[in-house]
């Protein structure tokens, strides 16, 4: 009697356990959520065009700004996170201290407070444009979290790899970028994906700076019409759709990176 | 036994709160609107409209409780029965009257534009291509949005807009005249930096009213009775002198 062992690897995507790999079923939590969100919006707009369709027409430029903030911040956090993560593992005491202090300070201050600080407090001396201030605050904040993720990922690569690379004549930089990081990516990607999704959701905090992103547009509409329920319902559904698409993107990337596992 | 005690306590608490609710009127203020309603250095909610409510309560023998609420969602909270009325410099507009009931007017306002001391501009048309800041969902912002070629930026609080003007992010601020005057004349930080450039001409006068939930006739009648009494006894004139100085 031999028991056939089937391996199902688990990829973590934003708190949901999704068996990845060979499972090609249509009915997943992800698809159910997406269908629910899209069909809700369609149903509401068809059934009550006033106010739902009006709200929907009011929001697109806000969605674009939300994208703009999120994508720019993601692009900035990757190098910041990488530098911080490598800095935290550096043998150079000063670099290590700088990276660790940055992480400690930034992790200890709420993002909303950081936004206020960069926009209003520093604004007394330097006036950054709203969007720039928002993107910088988001990047600085998430760079610290990302740094921790990178550090753990690099740490998780077996130290034999470094030894092997060094003994083959790679220098430190080559070892890091050609041997360690390509392997670390696979460990790093799921938690990094989670950070991206958290960043997208936290971009709604930027509305406090009068940046006209998705939530702010919803609030502007609600403040005139008093249709609070309808407005925030639409905003919530749109956020849900964007987040689901982003998480799908991350899990597709995970599967691509793991192609030699299957 | 314990169950009985708990049950008794619950019953007592419920009746107490019910009796309490009959007497105390909870009033919501967005206390970021000096001199109408704002938080002073001792963290008390003070201002013209706060005193006005207290005067009404005194005339009618009611007890009131003042609650500090953010402007964004202040109407939603009234719908959600979190408080009985809003006294937060709410201008009476037809759109708002569709959803809520207003007391008789207790203050007349116009919309004023604050500009840096060295800027020029005597009407909204002079501000084409410029950015005016204001508070989200206030009549000032509505006026700015209707003006052609003027960009509006809606902040959560009027103080944020004033600060943005101070740091040069925007070109001007639009808000109720009494508030504008307070920021320009009384605030030591901004004194000498801003000027009250002009009043936006409007064919319709604008008034503040107290807001109650649609159909709350009982409270509405009380308020109107109180406003009439406060006006007749000259208390209103005293309050104007105290807070607005005119």
TrEMBL record, chain A:
GO terms for biological process: amino acid transport. GO terms for cellular component: ATP-binding cassette (ABC) transporter complex. The chain crosses the membrane at residues 26-43, 63-82, 94-122, 128-145, 226-246. It comes from the Bacteria. One of its GO terms (molecular function) is transmembrane transporter activity. Part of the binding-protein-dependent transport system for glutamine; probably responsible for the translocation of the substrate across the membrane. This is Putative glutamine transport system permease protein GlnP. It comes from Halodesulfovibrio aestuarii.
From TrEMBL, chain B:
The keyword Signal applies. It comes from the Bacteria. Gene3D superfamilies: Periplasmic binding protein-like II. InterPro entries: Iontro_rcpt_C, Solute-binding_3/MltF_N. One of its GO terms (molecular function) is ligand-gated monoatomic ion channel activity. The lineage of its organism: Bacteria, Pseudomonadati, Thermodesulfobacteriota, Desulfovibrionia, Desulfovibrionales. Keywords: Signal. Residues 24-246 form the Ionotropic glutamate receptor C-terminal domain. Residues 1-21 form the signal peptide. This is Amino acid ABC transporter substrate-binding protein, PAAT family (TC 3.A.1.3.-). The keyword Signal applies. Residues 24-245 form the Solute-binding protein family 3/N-terminal domain. One of its GO terms (cellular component) is membrane.
């Amino acid at each position: 009697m031999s028991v056939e062992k089937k391996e199902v690897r688990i990829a973590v995507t934003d708190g949901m356990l999704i068996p990845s790999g060979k499972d090609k079923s249509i009915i997943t939590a992800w698809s159910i959520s997406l269908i629910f969100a899209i069909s809700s919006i369609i149903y509401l707009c068809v059934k009550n065009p006033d106010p739902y369709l009006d709200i929907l027409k009011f929001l697109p430029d806000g969605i674009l700004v939300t994208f703009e903030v999120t994508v720019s911040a993601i692009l900035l956090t990757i190098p910041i996170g990488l530098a911080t993560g490598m800095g935290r593992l550096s043998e150079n005491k000063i670099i290590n201290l700088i990276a660790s202090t940055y992480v400690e300070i930034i992790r200890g201050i709420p993002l909303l407070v950081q936004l206020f600080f960069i926009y209003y407090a520093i604004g007394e001396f330097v006036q950054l444009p709203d969007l720039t201030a928002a993107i910088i605050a988001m990047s600085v904040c998430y760079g610290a979290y990302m740094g921790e993720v990178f550090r753990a990922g690099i740490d998780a690569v077996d130290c034999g790899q470094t030894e092997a690379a060094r003994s083959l004549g790679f220098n430190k930089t080559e070892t890091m970028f050609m041997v360690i990081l390509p392997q670390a990516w696979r460990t790093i990607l799921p938690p990094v994906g989670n950070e991206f999704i958290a960043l997208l959701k936290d971009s709604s905090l930027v509305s406090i700076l009068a940046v006209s992103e998705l939530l702010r547009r919803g609030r502007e509409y609600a403040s005139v019409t008093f249709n609070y329920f309808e407005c925030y319902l639409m905003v919530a559904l749109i956020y849900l759709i964007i987040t689901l698409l982003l998480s799908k993107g991350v899990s597709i990337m995970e599967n691509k990176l793991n192609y030699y596992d299957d | 036994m314990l169950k009985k005690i708990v049950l008794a306590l619950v019953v007592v608490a419920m009746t107490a709160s019910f009796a309490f609710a009959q007497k105390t009127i909870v009033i919501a203020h967005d206390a970021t609107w000096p001199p109408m309603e704002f938080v002073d250095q001792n963290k008390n909610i003070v201002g013209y409209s706060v005193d006005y409510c207290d005067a009404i309560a005194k005339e009618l023998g009611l007890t009131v409780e003042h609650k500090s609420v953010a402007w964004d969602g202040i109407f939603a909270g009234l719908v959600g029965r979190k408080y009985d009325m809003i006294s937060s410099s709410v201008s009476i507009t037809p759109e708002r009257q569709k959803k809520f009931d207003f007391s008789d007017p207790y203050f007349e306002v116009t919309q004023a534009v604050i500009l840096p001391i060295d800027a020029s501009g005597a009407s909204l048309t002079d501000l084409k291509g410029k950015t005016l800041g204001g508070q989200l969902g206030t009549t000032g912002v509505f006026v700015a949005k209707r003006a052609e070629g003027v960009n509006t930026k809606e902040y959560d609080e009027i103080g944020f807009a004033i600060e943005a003007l101070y740091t040069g992010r925007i070109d001007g601020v639009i808000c109720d005249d009494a508030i504008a005057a307070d920021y320009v004349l009384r605030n030591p930080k901004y004194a000498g930096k801003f000027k009250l450039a002009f009043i936006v001409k409007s064919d319709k006068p604008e008034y503040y009213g107290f807001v109650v939930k649609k159909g709350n006739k009982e409270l509405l009648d009380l308020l109107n009775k109180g406003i009439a009494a406060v006006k007749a006894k000259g208390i209103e004139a005293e309050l104007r002198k105290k807070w607005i100085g005119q």
